[in-house]
């Protein structure tokens, strides 16, 4: 039979009410009494009931994180940092890997609501979650996604990154520079990478050439677009892609065909840097993105609103060559 509070109280030589006060950090408790209670818990292998404690504190100390795919090195590293930060702050994480599927995102959202999480970090596109957020008044912070005019956004300086990448290709003497980007109809700050590319190319007196990839996580679709690029622009010598996975697929395809192309990606996750150390990329400050978004979510949860940060936070990027 699992030990109960009264069993802890008996071993510690205190009342069950005192044990409850220790567990909930409520009222004055001497350090000696606190130590006796924790020692008794350890001796009889007692673990507090988090659900019962959450009913008292009105908090579950749970955060949900919804990402499109854990297979992407950037999101994998982002979640790694977020979980570590949350653990240091006393929060646990429920990770939702949506695979960009509408049905999975809705089910995950319902699961997070049922588990009464204190807040959610959303790194996927709007799949109708905003309506639920307003219905349940659940704090949300978005990562590089426009979900509503009430939900704060944390991300990198996408426009600045696009400028760095495109200017680098121009400085390296590339004569035909192409850009690979996700669907423009998705409302995301990442579209500023494309705008920066087109602005810089136009200012240089050239015509922008942008290829949209409808599903940026599908390697087959990426390869189809790459084949079309090579057929339509066989003289391409510079490409700026909106993420490193796209860049690595293009790099492999170019090597197979013996094409000499300078490629600049975007993300710069540590795993990608390890596997492709020579890949030129715009590196996002992934740990800072994690810290900033968690800080914002904690502030909303604890204060009821965001006071110390702007609606949209753009963190600095750097070019890795």
Please give a structural write-up:
It contains 13 helices and twelve strands. By secondary structure, the chain is an alpha/beta fold. β3 (119-122), α7 and β4 form a beta-alpha-beta unit. It is elongated and about 80 Å long. Strands 2-1-3-4-5-11 form a six-stranded parallel sheet, sandwiched between helices. A six-stranded mixed sheet has the order 7-6-8-9-10-12, sandwiched between helices. It starts with a helix and ends with a strand. α1 packs across α2 (16-23), α1 packs across α3 and α5 (73-88) crosses α13 (286-303). It folds into three domains: 5-56, 434 Repressor (Amino-terminal Domain) (Orthogonal Bundle); 62-154 and 286-312, Response regulator (Rossmann fold, 3-Layer(aba) Sandwich), CATH 3.40.50; 158-283, 3-Layer(aba) Sandwich (Rossmann fold). The mean pLDDT is 89.
Structural class computed from helices and strand pairing: alpha/beta
* Whole-number mean pLDDT: 89
Number of strands: 12
The CATH class name of the largest domain reads Alpha Beta
CATH topology of the largest domain: Rossmann fold
Distance between the termini: 61 Å
Biggest β-sheet, characterized? 6 strands, parallel
The H/E string reads HHHHEHEHEHEEHEHEHEHEHEHEE
Uncertain parts: none
Inertia-based shape: elongated
Query: What does the oligomeric state look like here?
Result: single chain
Estimated share of beta-strand residues: 15-25%
Number of helices: 13
- Radius of gyration, in Å, reads 25 Å
